[in-house]
Write a structure and sequence with these properties.
CATH topology: Rossmann fold
Largest sheet: 10 strands, mixed
Order of helices and strands: EHHEEEEHEEEEEEE
CATH class: Alpha Beta
Radius of gyration: 18 Å
Number of helices: 3
Low-confidence stretches: none
Structural class: alpha+beta
Distance between the termini: 45 Å
Oligomer: single chain
Number of strands: 12
Number of domains: 1
Strand content: 35-45%
Mean pLDDT: 91
Length: 211
């Protein structure tokens, strides 16, 4: 189930419509006056596996909360650089087949945890699916990309981006569901200490300081 913060802008409503096409078997719900606890209870009662809430700042999508049901966890991501489908240069009909998933550079324990949370938003695809969704991590920013492909020869494949595209950054994982504000925090983003070498959280790479 995908919904928004209260009083969403037209741009956020459009983004939700596009994400409904990204996640197979998902439904879109108008937020209205529902509070978080009502949303979670309604989803539980209807055997919803995950609740996604999108937030915005001045009309730009800026956060996504993924709550796994019935018991959690709840992962919160900031969003940036969102490009809608109609702004992607190459226009392509959105395929409804279940997509193959590519996860890149999520190799720490926390990276594997994030991979698991994202992976279970998607059903298992058939082998002949021509749709691919990529979550590529670089410096703890996860780039979301969405493509379809076709074979143009024995060893050649032509990729076409269908959108949307955006960057995600994990800032919190809580044990429990979204309305449980006192649930234990499994991980939370903290400002880096001013050190010459900065260890990444989602991958085993080390980022060198500009200093």
């Amino acid at each position: 189930m995908i919904t928004t913060s209260h009083d969403p802008s037209s741009r956020l409503k459009q983004f939700v419509k596009e994400l409904k096409l990204v996640f197979p078997n998902s439904q879109r719900m108008n937020r209205g006056n529902y509070v978080i606890s009502d949303l979670v209870n309604a989803c539980r009662a209807n055997n919803v596996t995950d609740l996604i809430i999108l937030h915005e700042h001045r009309g730009e999508p800026n956060a996504m909360v993924v709550c796994h049901l019935p018991y959690g966890p709840t992962a919160s991501f900031s969003l940036s650089n969102t490009i809608m489908r109609h702004d992607v240069e190459t226009k392509q009909t959105m395929s409804q087949v279940f997509p193959h998933l590519i996860f890149h550079n999520l190799d720490t324990r926390l990276g594997e945890r994030v991979k698991s949370i994202l992976k279970y938003l998607f059903p298992v695809p058939k082998e002949d699916s021509k749709r691919v969704i990529t979550f590529a991590n670089q410096h703890d920013y996860i780039s979301f990309r969405h493509h379809v492909y076709k074979k143009t020869g024995a060893k050649h494949v032509e990729l076409t981006e269908v959108g949307p595209r955006f960057e995600m950054r994990l800032y919190e994982i809580r044990l429990g569901t979204m309305e449980q504000t006192d649930a234990d925090v499994e991980w939370r983003l903290k400002p880096y200490m001013n050190t010459a070498r900065k260890r990444m959280a989602l991958s085993s790479e080390t980022l060198l300081s500009d200093q």
